Amino acid sequence: MDKDFDQYHEKAEILKVLAHPVRLCIVKGLIENGGCNVSHMQFCLEVPQSTLSQHLQKLRAAGIVEGKRNGLEINYKVCNERVVDLIKTLFAEDH
Questions:
Q1: Digit-coded pLDDT (tens) for 32-61
Q2: Domain spans of the chain, in order of start
Q3: What whole-number distance in Å separates Cα of residue 78 and Cα of residue 84?
Q4: What string of DSSP letters covers 48-85?
Q5: What SS3 state is found at 1?
Q6: Between these two residues, 88 and 2, which has the higher pLDDT value?
Q7: What gap in Å lies between CA 87 and CA 58, rounded to an integer?
Q8: Residue 94 in this model has a pLDDT that exceeds 70
């Protein structure tokens, strides 16, 4: 076994961020829809805007999602292909 844990740090951080039901739902929804804005996510998840913003901030900080401004809206999408593969694997039996 390789005892150099540095190589595992980034992957562990991504797993920690994804280990929350709301964030997992956000990421899965963004993948399925090819991205969307905060208003749509808030409507679908039925959570306060402030709560959603906190979750999106954690996902952005981990490099899992990115937001692009479109006028007054910010459209989010998953920007980490490893996360896309992981989510597809996690939910493969649900289809």
A1: 999 999 999 999 999 999 999 999 999 999
A2: 35-95
A3: 7
A4: -HHHHHHHHHHHHHTTSEEEEEETTEEEEEE--HHHHH
A5: coil
A6: 88
A7: 17
A8: no
End-to-end CA distance of the chain: 36
Two tokens at 1? 């076994």
Q: Are 65 and 27 in contact (CB under 8 A)?
A: yes
User: For the CA atoms of 32, 35, 37, 41, what is the dihedral angle to 10 degrees?
Assistant: 20
Distance CA 60, CA 34 (A): 16
Q: Is the pLDDT of residue 1 over 70?
A: no
Report domain 35-95's class: mainly alpha
Structure tokens at 28: 């899965």
Whole-number Å distance between alpha carbons of 26 and 63:
14
Q: Work out the average pLDDT over 9-24.
A: 94
Q: Both tokens of residue 30?
A: 């963004």
- Residue 54's CB is within 10 A of a number of other CB atoms, namely 14
Write down the pLDDT at residue 75: 95
